[in-house]
């Protein structure tokens, strides 16, 4: 199991414990559904919603609201579509990588993050099939950053995740980026589970990510995981990227890598692709 747990007694310990318990419970249910025939409906030309997706969300949201009734909730399957008027808001993606799960591809995750005053303070990503767990909390103000995550992997030896939306324009961008990176790195992947991909970047199992017009529900918590592990997340202007509630239902673009040099190299490719 790959884990990055909050420090015992640290901030948000109670919330992390409850969220992790909810994710584990939903994960146990999802394991019973993987590979089974599951009713699905299409959401647009390429995305699907599964009955397992909806049930996993119901279980997670019920557990969170029971313990923290004053907190708002935004979840992938609705029904709320605007940022709640609450100091604390849970963001829940009950099955990141639904298409993978629905077609028997074991690359998916449960993503839960907690925002306070529209900024993330807690993030967890749980792989229900391989039972990998990743948890991070926002360090207190003034605390030194995490230690550097180790030697840089050069681009030519890197495995890079590309993330985009399901639109026709997004697919064109993905093709253009794959072509730009082709031959420059070891491997380019489009695994369609961005929360899990960011968790893997945080622990070095993936080297970096380029995200083009993603969704805050999919990536907000994962970017905190990368930063908490000492990695780097940059917006397309080259400034540090910090998820914020104002980004909800707006396209989110950034690059992420464990090493700043690799992040800035990926940034140049992202800018080139964005320029057309």
Describe this structure in words.
This protein has two domains: 13-137, Fructose-1,6-Bisphosphatase, Chain A, domain 1 (2-Layer Sandwich), CATH 3.30.540.10; 155-275, 3-Layer(aba) Sandwich (D-Maltodextrin-Binding Protein, domain 2), CATH 3.40.190.80. It contains seven helices and twelve strands. The chain has helices at residues 13-33, 51-67, 98-102, 168-181, 194-203, 216-228, 260-275; strands at 40-43, 47-50, 72-75, 88-96, 109-116, 119-127, 132-137, 159-163, 187-189, 208-214, 232-234, 252-257. Residues 5-9 have low confidence and may be disordered. Keywords: Hydrolase, Magnesium, Metal-binding. Mg(2+) 2 binds at residue 93. It comes from Actinomadura verrucosospora. This is Inositol monophosphatase/fructose-1,6-bisphosphatase family protein.
CATH architecture of the largest domain: 2-Layer Sandwich
The total of beta strands comes to 12
Q: Quick one: overall form?
A: globular
Low-confidence stretches: 5-9
Distance between the termini: 41 Å
User: What is CATH's topology name of the largest domain?
Assistant: Fructose-1,6-Bisphosphatase, Chain A, domain 1
Structural class: alpha/beta
Per DSSP, the total helix count is 7
Summarize the biggest pleated sheet: 5 strands, mixed
Q: Could you state the CATH homologous superfamily of the largest domain?
A: Fructose-1,6-Bisphosphatase, subunit A, domain 1
Mean pLDDT: 89
Helix percentage range: 25-40%
């Amino acid at each position: 199991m790959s884990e990055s747990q909050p420090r015992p007694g640290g901030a948000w310990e109670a919330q992390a414990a409850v969220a992790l318990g909810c994710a584990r419970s939903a994960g146990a249910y999802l394991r019973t559904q993987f590979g089974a025939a599951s009713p699905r409906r299409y959401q647009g030309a390429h995305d699907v919603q599964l009955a397992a997706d909806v049930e996993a969300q119901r279980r997670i949201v019920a557990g969170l609201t029971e313990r923290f009734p004053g907190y708002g909730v935004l979840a992938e399957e609705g029904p709320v579509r605007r940022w709640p008027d609450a100091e604390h808001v849970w963001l829940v993606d009950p099955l990141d990588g639904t298409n993978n799960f629905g077609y028997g591809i074991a690359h998916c995750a449960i993503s839960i993050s907690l925002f306070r005053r529209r900024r993330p303070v807690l993030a967890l990503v749980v792989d229900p099939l391989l039972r990998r767990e990743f948890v991070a909390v926002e360090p207190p103000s003034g605390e030194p950053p995490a230690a550097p995550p180790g030697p840089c992997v050069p681009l030519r030896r890197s495995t890079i995740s590309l993330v985009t939306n399901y639109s026709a324009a997004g697919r064109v961008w993905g093709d253009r980026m794959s072509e730009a990176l082709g031959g420059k790195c070891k491997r380019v992947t489009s695994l369609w589970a961005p929360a899990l991909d960011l968790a893997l970047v945080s622990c070095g199992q993936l080297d970096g990510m380029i995200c083009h017009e993603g969704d805050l529900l999919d990536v907000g918590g994962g970017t905190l995981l990368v930063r908490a592990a000492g990695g780097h997340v940059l917006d397309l202007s080259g400034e540090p990227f910090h998820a914020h509630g104002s980004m909800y239902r707006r396209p989110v673009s950034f690059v992420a890598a464990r090493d700043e040099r690799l992040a800035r190299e990926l940034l140049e490719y992202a800018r080139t692709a964005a320029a057309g």
